[in-house]
Amino acid sequence: MLMIDGYNLLRAVQNLLEQASDFTDIQLCRMVDEYLYRTKKRGQIIFDGVGPRDKSGFNNLRNLEVIFSGTIHEADDVIEKLIRENSAPRNLAVVSSDRRIKTAANKRKADAVDCVDFWTEVIKQLEKKKKRQAEPPAKFYGISEAETEYWLREFGLLK
Q1: What is the pLDDT at residue 118?
Q2: Are the CB atoms for 41 and 2 separated by under 8 Å?
Q3: H or E element, residue 31
Q4: What is the pLDDT of residue 150?
Q5: Which of 66, 87, 147, 158 shows the greatest Cβ crowding within 10 Å of its Cβ?
Q6: Smallest Cα–Cα separation from 39: which of 133, 105, 124?
Q7: Are the CB atoms for 97 and 114 separated by under 8 Å?
Q8: What pLDDT band is residue 42 in, cutting at 50, 70 and 90?
């Protein structure tokens, strides 16, 4: 399970990109979701605040749950609480460059991952081409006339 400090990762990614202001939280979530899907993992990304009024951009994520901390709590508070309440913290990887979050992860023996290191892994995974299985030629060309005749006879459709 992956737990991500949303805006912490977003700022780290924006610092790495030339067109920083063009990269949004929705794009980040879609890329992380694709990474999680390809690596067969699940995750949560926690952002400060209530998020945008229209949250439809966060819909249809397969392996990533998006959480907003609300107006009363900061994302760091929510992340710390989720780390404390996690029933299997040794199976948890917490992505943040924030010392407070890393300390909370280490206390529970969870893996603390730096944002830049995580993003490097995401990009590496997304740049890999999906391995395609070779399709049998019969799929494209159909079966031969002799095979067709055999099966028609076998099923009693041809005498």
Answers
A1: 97
A2: yes
A3: helix 25-38
A4: 86
A5: 66
A6: 124
A7: yes
A8: very high
- Domain boundaries of the chain, sorted by first residue: 2-132
Query: C-alpha angle 138/143/145, rounded to 5°?
Result: 155
Q: How far apart are CA 32 and CA 38, in angstroms?
A: 10
For every residue of 121-149, DSSP letters joined together read HHHHHHHSPPPPPPPPHHHHH---HHHHH
Tens digit of each residue's pLDDT (9 = 90 or more) over 105-136: 999 999 999 999 999 999 999 988 766 666 66
**Region class of 31: left (phi > 0), else alpha (psi between -120 and 50), else beta:** alpha
> What is the rounded CA–CA span in Å between residue 159 and residue 140?
28
Please give the Cα distance from 2 to 22 (Å, whole number): 25
Fold for the domain defined by 2-132: Rossmann fold (3.40.50)
Instruction: Give the range among 15-19, 30-34, 110-114 with minimum mean pLDDT.
Output: 15-19
